[in-house]
Amino acid sequence: MAERCVLDLFSGIGGFSLGLHWVGFRTIGFCESDQFCQRLLARHWPGVPIYPDIRTLDAARIRSDGIAPFLVCGGFPCQDVSLAGPGTGLDGARSGLWAEMARIVGVCRPRWVIVENVPGLRTRGADRVIGDLAALGYASWSFVVGAAHAGAPHRRQRLFLLARDISAHPARARLEMRQRLSTQQARVLPAERFGGWLAEPCVRRVDHGFPGRVDRVRSLGNAVVPAVAAAFGRSINVVEDLV
Question: Spelled out in words, what is the top-level CATH class assigned to the domain 5-176+200-242?
Answer without folding.
Answer: alpha beta
